[in-house]
Please model this.
Amino acid sequence: MAEPTPRRNESRLRPAPLLFEPAEVASDPEHFFDLESIDDPRALLARATELTQAFRAATDRAVEFQAIAAAQLADPRRFDRLTPADIAAQAEWTEDYAKKMVEFGRDLMRGVEGPGHVDPV
Model:
């Protein structure tokens, strides 16, 4: 299971970088961040673990940005604000999940991360 996302006052782990893959290499279905070229199982496990941690960190960060965007789009001060149903349709979420993401985003923007706070995911 993924580690909890560090909060604003905690330092973030710096996972292995996700290196760019050239289009011709990425189009090969057997190629994945050059893992297939690693023969040593220890090295393969280490690099695959680094990539797993990097993808988890990227996912956690992307979810935070989704939540902030949802909160901004639902802001009642915006003349063009969206309803939770509109946000859900755009992000391919359920309406209930969109409501939770809006609230999570508002908490993130306020810097609220109390012990009772739970990520929507």
Observations:
- The radius of gyration is 18 Å.
